[in-house]
Design a protein that fits this description.
It comes from Subtercola boreus. InterPro entries: F420-0_g-glutamyl_ligase (IPR008225), F420-0_gamma-glut_ligase-dom (IPR002847). The chain is an alpha+beta fold. The chain has 3 domains: 180 residues, CofE-like (60s Ribosomal Protein L30, Chain: A, 2-Layer Sandwich), CATH 3.30.1330; 56 residues, CofE-like domain (CofE-like fold), CATH 3.90.1660; 31 residues. Helices cover 31% and strands 25% of the residues. The chain is built from 6 helices and 12 strands. The protein has a 5-stranded mixed β-sheet, with helices on both faces. Strand 8 and strand 9 form a beta hairpin. The radius of gyration is 23 Å and the shape is globular.
């Protein structure tokens, strides 16, 4: 029988710029009496990575920070509290406010995402593997909304030593039919499972998951960025209102040019 165990780590103090997360996590594991085993996965919320890396800015700079982190605007919607911007950020992630977040950070400050979450995950994994003497995988998670679905879930934005996709193509289902397209985004599923025990306001930013050792590999080159869908594979590049406006503008321009040329041709 397949089993999955998830443990949230309590007892971690507030992370500040310059902290060594491997030291803080190792201390929290020891305090909780958790012995990390080969094949365990640690899911670390991006907020404490950002704090350790000094990615804190003043709250009154939030809108400017969102603009600075934005590569492309996907959609904007006005609401009673202001305007929500759904954008593609410089990491290729499409999310609200470019990932700039005011929760779980001191009043008057906001957090930017880590500069390179995959690099942060690799560094943390290397340090923890050396410190703990086991092959542990690291995922860095962040909270994202989903098109067509209400609510938010945690997803993996950084990875090291964890296969982010379980590619089932070429296998067969229980009826013997070949699987043609199935690729399970297991890193995102693990991040969401970890959040069930970490929570959002519990002060427990790290979870240990046990039972998925088949997804933990020796190499640390397992980037979560491989999960982002942008460029030619992006079927939903714009919000519905923005796509309509863009199509209208292009149609108007083409029609205007055609009408202008037709008018010239009709002139004596």
């Amino acid at each position: 029988m397949t089993e999955l165990h998830a443990y949230a780590l309590g007892g971690m103090r507030e992370v500040v710029a310059g902290d060594r997360l491997d030291e803080l996590i190792a201390a929290a594991l020891a305090e909780q009496g958790l012995q990390v085993r080969d094949g365990d996965i640690l899911v670390v919320t991006s907020k404490i990575v950002s704090k350790a890396e000094g990615r804190t800015v003043r709250a009154d700079d939030r809108e400017a920070a969102i603009t600075d982190e934005t590569v492309r605007v996907v959609a904007t919607r006005a609401h009673p509290g202001g305007v929500t911007r759904i954008v593609e950020n410089r990491l290729g992630i499409v999310q609200a406010a470019a990932g700039v977040d005011a929760s779980n950070t001191p009043v008057g400050t906001v957090l930017l995402l880590p500069v390179d979450p995959d690099a942060s995950a690799r560094q943390l994994a290397a340090h923890l593997r050396e410190r703990l003497g086991v092959r542990v995988g690291i995922l860095i998670s962040d909270t994202l909304g989903r098109a067509w679905r209400e609510g938010q879930t945690d997803q993996a934005i950084g990875s090291a030593g964890v296969r982010v996709v379980d590619d089932l193509r070429g296998g067969v289902d229980t009826f013997g039919q070949t699987l043609e397209v199935t690729q399970m985004a297991v890193a995102d599923e693990i991040a969401s499972a970890a959040d069930l025990v970490k929570g959002k306001a519990s002060g427990m930013p790290v979870a240990l998951l046990r039972g998925l050792s088949h997804l933990v590999v020796e190499t640390l080159e397992t980037p979560a960025r491989a999960l982002t869908r942008t460029g030619p594979t992006d079927m939903f590049r714009l919000g519905s209102d923005e796509a309509h406006a863009e199509g209208h503008a292009e149609g108007y321009a083409e029609g205007f040019e055609a009408g202008y040329l037709a008018g010239l041709a009709a002139m004596p």
